[in-house]
Design a protein that fits this description.
The chain is an alpha+beta fold and about 170 residues long. It is about 30% helix and about 30% strand.
Length: about 170
C-alpha cells in the first residue's frame, strides 16, 4: 500500500470510493448520512467534491496501483464548522473502500495527516462527521486519537460531531 498526492485528475476515483461507501451504508440501513443515490449521479455532489479537491490537499491510498482510500485536508474547516483562532489541519473528507475493510486504510491516511500537520508546525487537527445512527463514526475517530469538541446540525438536518486532536 502506498499513499500519494492527488489532484483533480483523481476525481473519478474519489467519486467511485464515495459511491461504494454510499452503497455500503445503504445496505446497512444508513440512508440518512449520505442519502441513497451514488455521488457520481448527483451534479451538486460532484461539483462539491471537485471543489474540495481543488481547494485542499488530496491524498490517495493505492493497493496494487488501484485507489482504495482518499483524504482531503485543508487549513480551513468546513463552512458549517466554527473556525478556531489558531492554525489547524482540517480533515475535510476521508473515505475508504469497503472491499478492503480491515486493512487500516483510514488509519494510515489519518497518520499521514498527523505527519503533514507536524511538518507544517500545526498543533491542532480537526474533523467533523455524522453523529447519527449508533455513533460508530464518532467512535472511529475517537479510536484514532480525536476527542469530541462540539456538535452541529447540518443543512441536511443531520447531527454532526466536531472532533479535535492536539499534536
Amino acid at each position: 500500500m502506498r499513499i500519494r498526492t492527488g489532484d483533480e485528475s483523481d476525481l473519478t476515483a474519489v467519486l467511485a470510493l464515495l459511491d461504494e461507501a454510499t452503497a455500503w451504508m445503504v445496505s446497512r440501513g444508513n440512508t440518512r448520512q449520505w442519502g441513497t443515490e451514488p455521488w457520481s449521479d448527483q451534479p451538486k455532489k460532484v461539483d462539491r467534491t471537485r471543489e474540495l479537491i481543488t481547494t485542499g490537499e488530496l491524498w490517495i491510498t493505492e493497493l496494487d496501483g488501484a485507489p482504495v482510500g482518499a483524504m482531503i485536508v485543508s487549513d480551513q474547516p468546513m463552512p458549517y464548522v466554527k473556525p478556531v483562532d489558531e492554525p489547524e489541519l482540517y480533515v475535510r473528507m476521508l473515505v475508504t473502500s469497503r472491499r478492503h475493510a480491515g486493512k487500516r486504510i483510514g488509519e494510515q491516511l489519518l497518520a499521514k495527516a498527523r505527519s503533514e500537520a507536524v511538518a507544517k508546525g500545526v498543533s491542532l487537527m480537526r474533523v467533523d462527521c455524522f453523529a447519527g445512527g449508533a455513533g460508530e463514526l464518532v467512535r472511529y475517530y475517537e479510536r484514532n486519537g480525536f476527542q469530541r469538541a462540539g456538535t452541529f446540525t447540518s443543512i441536511q438536518d443531520w447531527p454532526g460531531q466536531v472532533l479535535s486532536m492536539r499534536l
